[in-house]
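Morning F.,

Quick status update on the modeling queue. The single chain you submitted on Monday has been processed. Sequence for confirmation:
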Amino acid sequence: MNRIASPRPRAASRALLGALALVSALAAAAPAAAQEPAPWRDEGTGCWYLRGGTGLTPRLRRDGTPDCPGAPPALTAPPVAAAPSRWAEGLDERATRDLARAVERLEREMAALRQAIERQAR
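C-alpha cells below.
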C-alpha cells in the first residue's frame, strides 16, 4: 500500500506564524492604548463629558458629583487627597520598556528564524 506523506508544519513555519501573531496583536493594541478621551461640553445643560472610543461618559468632579453647573453638592465629605502614586507615574515607563523588550525579543527570534530558513535552503 502506498502511503502519501501529509505535509507537516515545520518548526520554522510555526515560529514564523507565532511571530506574525505577536506582531499583529501588538499592532492592533497600539491605537487602542494611545487613544485618550477628549472632553466635550453639552451646550444645553452645561455638563462636561469624556468622549472616547466607547461613547460618552459623564465627567465627574473630585467629590464624585457630575461636572454640571446645577449639580447638587456631594452628600459626603470630599475624599482626602492622596499623594501621587509612584506606581501610576512609572506605569507608562514600564509599559514602554516592556514593549521595547518584546520587540527586541521578536527581532532576535525573526533573525534566528531567517538563519534557520537559510540553512535549510542550502
